[in-house]
Amino acid sequence: MTAILHTPILKFGSGERKSCPGKLSRDAVGIKALKNKVRYTAVILLTLVAVGVIVGSMLWNRVEQQSDWQPFVLTPTAYPETTGSNLDGHFYLDKIQPIFNRRCIVCHGCLDSPCLLKLTCYEGLLRGARKVNPDATHLFAEKPVRLHDQPSLAAWREQGFCSVVEQQGPPEERPAKSILFRMLVAGTEQNQPPFDVQPLESVYKSVNEHICPCEQGIDAYLKQRPTAGMPFGLPALSPEENQRFSEWISAGSPGPTADVMAEVEKLAQPEVIARWEAFLNQQAPLSPLVSRFIFEHAFLATLHFEESQGEYFRLVRSTTPPIQVKNDEDGKQFVVPSPVHEIKTARPYDTPYLSGVDQIYYRLKKVTEARAQKSMFVWQLSDARLKRLKELFFQVDPVSGKSLTPGYSSHNPFEVFQAIPARSRALFLVENSHLIVSGMIRGPVCVGNLATYAIKDNFWVFFVDPAHDPSVLKPELGLQSWNDFMDYGIKGNAVYNEAYNRMLDKYKPTGYQIDDVWDGNQENSNAWLTILRNETNATVLRGRQGGIPPTFWMIDYSGFERLYYSLVVNYEYYGSVEQKLATWEFMSRLRQEFEDNFLRLLPVDDRQKYRDLWTRGIGQELLFRMPFPGEEAGQGIDMQGLDPISGVLSKIQRRFTEAVSGPHDLLNPGRKPDVKLTDPVNDFAGWEAAVSTLTMRTQLKFTQFLPSNTFIRLTKREESRVYSLVANRSYAFNNVVFDENGARQPDLDTLSVYQGLVGDFPNLIIDLKLEQASAFLTELNAVSTTEEWTAWKNKYGTLRNTAAFWTLLDWLTDWNFQNRQPDAGYFDLKYYMLLDSRY
């Protein structure tokens, strides 16, 4: 998913092993599939050679640099370094960061921001910009560039980052020497609405080859690219905002003072944090392993506590002990503070026991930077959740004979966490599935259409009940080595699949039944997920949303863990082309495994038919055709006259109840209301009925022109409501890398409509009056050519070069923060008015 970005590349043949217990099934790895893989391997190898020729002279230096990177302990005073000024210590947080939040982190809010300039906090501003993106195509691994991957500004400068603000010299000369301010001035000169957007196209076509002012110098850069001012391709800042920046940069671009940051970092409810830190660092024998398990599954998440509203945290490893809340002689509570000295490692399973570190603690580090929604996902916690975690992990006995202190030599979760009962681990994953899946689709790197192409555009996810899951009932699946679980190669995956099927034959000889689907105890909406792939990014929603999709997954415990560790824990955004391809192919195979799991709920005679329907054309030649258990017995679920998919979904819905699935979806119904688009729309209910006549329908002409995400503010007199139009694109296959366009089936594209804001990258925002709604939908339905789409977009869309743009976006941003807490963040505009995949 979006954890694999830009150029994920298959690693053919990476699964060769010294020993291979078990025999490869003829169906698992067909001769035809292997021949095709050889053919595609040749294409990939040629690609690698071409890349090597292009970047060869630079790569060896980067490899040498990579070997120099060492993990370290980040102390509160090590970074950033600030300068003094006569401005108030609150000036940056009160006057400057809010402008960055609303006008700059729409593009500069993620790890792979243009020029790697990250403006969500003062540390990112001070670090500055660099041309080379470690997430771009390169044959060898580079250094990670997360915001705190270096201990000082000096270390960042050695890694090629340049300052974007001038802090030296006479105050009156600083703005003219500041890259940031000069880019804002250029934007003011060039981007006064209505400005020409034509020059943007060439830049977007080479978006990953951008040239940054650091190398060329700001004067020469702007002379050659006068339209490159900031905000890029968007209306310029106001005179008041520019004046504020001028005043600040003239004063030396100071950040918040230590006293101000101490105030910001102060805990509002320290007793809540103390409770959780005590849980994570208790003396129980199993505790260190449990905390390590939780950390590895939540290290990318933003934590929010119901008992401490408005505060956000990250789970980190630290050299300092937890805070404590004690009582004085009078019985009054007081806090024993303890600063967090975070231990920084490249990957979450790397050993934290660095030189001089004898004891580690799991701590909650308060998040003080602005929240970019595209990279943020929230794990909502509470005292009730704390109680449940205690039940899962500490009201069970450790597995006898398994190590409680496995060390850090192995990175295999099935091996490392053996002492924790498999049922507890599996229940943690399914009960928090939104957290786990969000980690896969919202990582430190934010966009990349090749990565997301490994999955369908729209599907529902269910889970095998841990009580009935063969990989929980028999965690080792009869295999001789835990390495078989995490071998990404073709043969390794086949060995795992064959072992899983043997256990499935043993425990579920006729395949899965409806009772084998985890129902969330009829209250946990994590049991039913809706996944949307929006070309370069993805979204996960709880419950059944957006109408019945064309495909479905059912994930078992071991498959879920393999998927997560492949896409998140083991994934290196700074890794080589080969590593990224290996991850992509593994993800593609896992997708088929989970689709096959769902098909095991269907009658035997229908399973192969739907497998072939879900992957068509050349993609079928690469399928791993494991047999479906129970085929010989002719078993399956009685559909009672319904078509197979509808029958299974009806049974799941009845078992789950609306507490899990959510209410009936009136915007995307299977049975459409008797409404004509030409009928007047008088209220919001009328709008929802009218738009629902266009949703989840194939063979409509306009759907192929829709961008991934469109936000609509619909207004009736003084009342406004918000809706999202989401394009669901259809592909014949998703298992041939680099052939996304060849797989397109535009006639099968559909539209889903949602209440509220869905997606993090709006491609178009529309301000619509209710009295316009009928014409809006009628004209949309009539679109059948690119020219007609452009005319419709220009008529109804709020274009990026118009004076109304920021006003409407600010309104939607405010709505987002007012209505979607604690999950709200700032949106990204990288692909605004563009089809993502073209660029």
TrEMBL record:
Q: Which Pfam families match?
A: CTI (PF06934)
What GO molecular functions are on record for this protein?
Answer: isomerase activity
Q: Which residues cross the membrane?
A: 40-60
Q: Which keywords belong to this entry? A: Isomerase, Membrane, Transmembrane, Transmembrane helix
In terms of domain of life, where is this protein from?
Bacteria
Cite the InterPro entries for this sequence: Fatty_acid_cis-trans_isomerase
Stated name of the protein = Fatty acid cis/trans isomerase (CTI)
What organism does the UniProt record list as the source?
Gimesia algae
